[in-house]
Design a protein that fits this description.
Oligomer: single chain
Distance between the termini: 25 Å
Low-confidence stretches: 1-25
Number of strands: 6
Strand content: 25-35%
Mean pLDDT: 78
């Protein structure tokens, strides 16, 4: 699973995910200051949500990793700067059902 039309690669290492090329960009968190929305998809239940806006997705990434370690097929990716565009693009690209934020995974306060 990839973020399809929501990813905008800018250079770095590439690797294949489900027959799509994705570029990994090593950007220090201190440089990520523009708010963005995070798409979180639960492929087991065919649903997704858009969390944010945020400037640090670390707690959400940790929550996704915990879900994956528990055996869930949950993924997340940067959804860009406009929530409504992220929702419509992801729904159109993957046909998943949109659910309210906070339903798929929950970051811990101590993360």
């Amino acid at each position: 699973m990839s973020c399809g039309p929501l990813l905008k690669p800018r250079g770095g290492q590439t690797f294949s995910v489900m027959e799509q090329k994705i570029e990994v960009v090593d950007t220090p968190r201190s440089r990520l200051t523009a708010p963005f929305f995070l798409v979180v998809a639960d492929w087991d239940n065919r649903v997704f949500t858009v969390e944010g806006p945020m400037i640090d997705d670390t707690p959400w990434n940790k929550a996704v990793v915990r879900a994956q370690e528990a055996g869930r097929n949950v993924k997340c990716c940067n959804g860009g700067s406009a929530q409504d565009e992220a929702v419509s693009a992801y729904r159109r690209a993957y046909g998943l059902r949109f659910v309210e934020p906070g339903i798929i995974v929950h970051p811990r306060i101590d993360d």
